[in-house]
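FW: tagging you since you asked about this chain on Friday. Here's the raw sequence from the shared folder, copied in full. Didn't touch anything.
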Amino acid sequence: MPSSDMNAPIPSTLRATLALAAGFLMAGPAAASVAAAAPRPADREIAVIADYGREPVAELQPYSYWRWTPEMKASAGDFSRRAIVEGADGQRHLLLHVSPTFPWYGAPISLHSLTSDYFPPESDAIILRLRVESGEFLLGIGGPTAYFGDSDVFTATQRIPVGDWIDVRFDLHEGLRRNYRRAGYGRSARVMSYNRWAQEPTMLYVSPGSSGTLRIQSAKLVATGRGRPFPTFEPAALKPVRNVPAALDSAFSMLLADSQAADFKASWLDPAACRYPPPAITVAEGPAPGSDALSATAGWNEEIRWAGLRTEPTSGADALAITVRVATDVASAQLGSDAGQPIDIGLFAAPAGEPFPWDRLRPPEEWRRDAKVRGYDLNFSHRVVGTVEGLDVGLFHARRFVRPGEWHSFVIPFEDFACVGATGVFRERLAAHAPPTPSDASAAVLWLVPWPRRKPGAPSTATVADVRFVRIDPSDARPRRSYPAPLPGTLPQENQP
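HL: got it, structure written out here
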C-alpha cells in the first residue's frame, strides 16, 4: 500500500479550499478541555496514520494563507513552523509552532495533513499522541467532504494546555461540526457525517486563540464497534427482483453541481466553456466472456458528474447487486485494506406508482437540436431543481472500495445508502440522510469515481456490469449498515466573506 504523504508541504490549492471554511470550528459549543473520558468500548487499532518517529529529520514548509498579502506570505516563517525534529530523548516527532503574531483572519488553519488515505467504514476515532510544550492549542480534525455531502465536516474542537505527553481522542461521530460552503442539497440535512463522504486529505486544524509549540509523536485510527465492515451475503440469501441490462440506450450522464450549474447548458452549446464535461459512456466487455457492461470515463476531479443506467421502476427490492471495475493510474489507498480505490454508487427513486420525471430534468429540445456534441442528459443541480414543487425525486449514495483493474461484486443493502439529494416528498429523507425503502420505485443506478486525493483531474474509467435489484432473505440476521447512522451536529452560521 502506498504510504501517506503526511509530511509533504500543504499544497496551495488545498490550503485555499480549506481556508474558505471560515469560523466553523469556533462556532457552536466552546472547545472542550482534555479530561477523563467516560467509559467506552475497547479500542481496536485499525492502522497507524502517522508515526513521526520513523520520519527523517526535515524542515517542512510553514503555513501560508491564500488571502495573505505578498509580504505576509514572504514572512510565513515568522508566523509558524513545521518540522520533523529529534527531541532530547532521541525520539523524533512532528513539531508545530504557531506565533502569537499569527494573522488568523478569524478562521482556523489546516496546519498539517495527517493522511491522504481513505478510512474504512468501521473507523470511529483518531488518537493523537501529543504534548503542548508552550502556550495553548485548540485542535480539531476534518476537512472537505464530497460535493453532495455535508460541505466541510470537523470533529469537536479540543483545548490542550501545556503538559506532559497525552493521548487525545477525536471522535468521528459525536459532536461533529460543519460549515455551509457549497452545501447544495446538504444545507437542509439535520445530521452530518465525516467518514462517509471524506473527500480530501484528513487535516489537523488549529483555531484562533492558539499559540506556542506543539509536538506530535503519532496518530492512529481506531474502531469501537459503531462502524462496521461492509456487509457481505451468500448468493443463496438473495431473491431476484429485477435485472438491469447494461444497455447503451439506457445510459445517461447527470450534472450535480451548484457553482458549476452553467456547465449544463455549456456542455451542449459551448463545450469549450464547459469546465466539467460529462463522462464518456461506452459499451464494454463484462467480467465474463460475452457479458455486457458500460464504462464511464472522465477526469473525476469533483463529484459533480455521474454516469447512470435507467431501469423500469422497481419496488420490492431491499438491496442492489452490482459488479464494478475501476481503471486508474491514481494511487489511492485505504487504511487497513488492500482495496483502496473508492467508487460511489447512486440510486434514483420516485414514489411507488408514479413515473420518474425524466423530462423535467432533461435539456430543452432546442439545445439537443442545435448541438454538435452530446452534453449532460440530466441536470439535478440543487440550484435548478432543489426547490421545485411537484417534483418528487430522491438520490441515494453508497461507497465501496476496490483494487484498481480488478472486478469486484457487491451486494449493497438499501440500509447502507443515504439520501444526498431530494425534492418533494423525499426532502425528509434528505434531512436525516435516510436510506431508500423497498416501497420506493427505483428508477436508475448511477456511479462515479470520487475525487482523487493524490492526483486531482486524472482520468479514470469506471465500468459496471451484472446490475440487479434483489431482496435479502429476512432470516439473514447479519448487520446491513456499515457506516453508523449519522448524528445531529453543530451547524455554524454562514461563512464570513
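FW: Residues 12-19 form the longest helix (8 residues).
HL: agreed, and The CA atoms of residues 291 and 452 lie 29 Å apart.
FW: great, closing this out.
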